[in-house]
Amino acid sequence: MPSLSPDDTIAALSSPPGTGAVALLRVSGPLAQSVAHAAFRGPSLQPRRALLGHITDPSGDPIDEVLLTFFPAPASYTGEDTIEISCHGGLLITRKVLDRLLQVGARHAAPGEFTQRAFLHGKLDLTQAEAVMDLISAQTDRALHAAHRQLDGALGRHILALQQDLLAILAHIEAYIDFPDDDIDPDTGHALLARLESLQRQLLALLATAHHGRLLREGVRTVLVGAPNAGKSSLLNQLLGFERAIVSDLPGTTRDTIEEVINLHGFPLRLIDTAGLRSAPCDPIEAAGIARTHSQLASADLILTVVDASLPPPPPLDLPPNPNTRHLLVLHKSDLPRHPAWQYSSGVPVSSHTGAGLPDLAQLIAATIADGGEALAQMDVAVNARHQACLLRAQAALQSAHAALSQQASAEFVALDLHLALEALGDVVGRLDVEDLLGAIFSQFCIGK
What we know:
Elements: E1 10-13, E2 20-28, H1 32-39, E3 40-41, E4 50-56, E5 62-71, E6 82-89, H2 91-103, E7 107-108, H3 113-120, H4 126-137, H5 141-151, H6 154-178, H7 189-207, H8 210-218, E8 220-225, H9 232-240, E9 258-264, E10 267-273, H10 284-298, E11 302-308, E12 326-332, E13 348-349, H11 358-369, H12 375-378, H13 385-406, H14 411-429, H15 435-445
Parallel strand pairs: 1-7, 8-10, 8-11, 11-12, 12-13
Antiparallel strand pairs: 1-2, 2-6, 3-4, 4-5, 5-6, 9-10
Helix pairs in contact: 4-5, 6-7, 6-14, 6-15, 7-13, 13-14
């Protein structure tokens, strides 16, 4: 986001554009009250009271009848004086109301600028600001629940606890460096190593949530793969609940990938139907479709290998060796007599014709994604890619500090690594008060008493 002046008063439509019963517009900044006085004709502003009146044009004629609510600083979303206007939800009305607000002193807000101001005024940390978008874009109950926990500050509290523990360790080291004559125990040796190891374990626990966090935010890339006529497109249609893919007895009907998202037991599942794999495609278009199938397999979170269980096993599929990709075998066409070669298979029998086995398949997919169905329920946080990068930096710095202590290196090297770890943790939430370190030193050791 470009640099924007915090002295500006901003305004924008906060509800989705389009036609509806009601639309919501926001104004935030030092001139919010002035903007309201210039554009609103009605009762005098009262904090947190919805006032009925009109937004008027420059000549005083009404543009629309509205409800206006004033939230004085700092008790507002942004921490600034904020005005919320509920008007009728027509395209023309909302545009005219917004234009009037811009005429009398506001500037059009940039994307995310209201939440950016909330962060800058200390109303949210960066993890909570990111959770606002997660909350808006959540597609399932699980994703919504994770976003609520993030918005409530769950990750921020974890990071704060880690920072406090790290500050306590660093305070000992810094005091030992700066005031060696005070005979302050630097808490080195086994005790300090144990404290660093505890911090590393906590970091690893947070990093372990990154995978599930990505699945909740982006969806589980689930690729249906198999030989031609195995029934992949029929299975896709059954899982979706409507006819999305063309189904035909002719091999090679599916030439391109087809992608749709469903909510499966609280997980956003990105189902991807692919061209059937065979060694000798009949034309260049089918060959291009098979190439796209291999491309989808390389980035899959879950691969559903679909086979026609009424026929002998096809040649083994050349699947990419990705250790993070889960695999499930679907014994399709279970309404037909099963071929003896599949009698002892551990695959899931399913029939798209009768619907048999589909609930079992859905349950198994959910359990496979969630490591038995309990992992996400027990998660307090789910870090995103940015959090993960910061935590990995902190983990690397702690490992370096641990190695330096183990080798009895100079305390200055240990302190440098701990500062790097502290900086990386601060980047997660977007703030680190430099006075924290001084406060920790003086409160623990009473230096200069």
